[in-house]
Amino acid sequence: MNATPRIPGHRFLHSPGPTRVPDEVLNAMHRQPMDLADPRVDELIASCEQGLKALLQTKDADLFMYAANGHGVWEAVIANVAAPGQTVLVPGTGHFSESWAVQAEAMGVQVLRTPWREGWPMDIDAIEQALRADAGQAIVAVFAVHTDTASGMTSDLAAVRRAIDAAAHPALLVVDVVASLAAEPFAMDALGANVVLGASQKGLMTPPGLGFVAVDAHAMAVARRNTAPRYYWDWTRRQGPLSYRKFCGTPPMNLLMGLQASLGLIFHEGLPQVLARHQLMARTVHAAVNGWSEGGGVRLFARDARALSVSVTTVAVGADVDPEALRTIARERFQVAVAGGLGPLAGRAFRIGHLGDLNPAMIMGCLAGVEAALLVQGVAIGGGGLAAAIRVLANSS
Ligand SMILES: Cc1ncc(COP(=O)(O)O)c(C=O)c1O
Question: Are residues 136 and 112 in contact, defined by beta-carbon separation less than 8 angstroms?
Answer without folding.
Answer: no
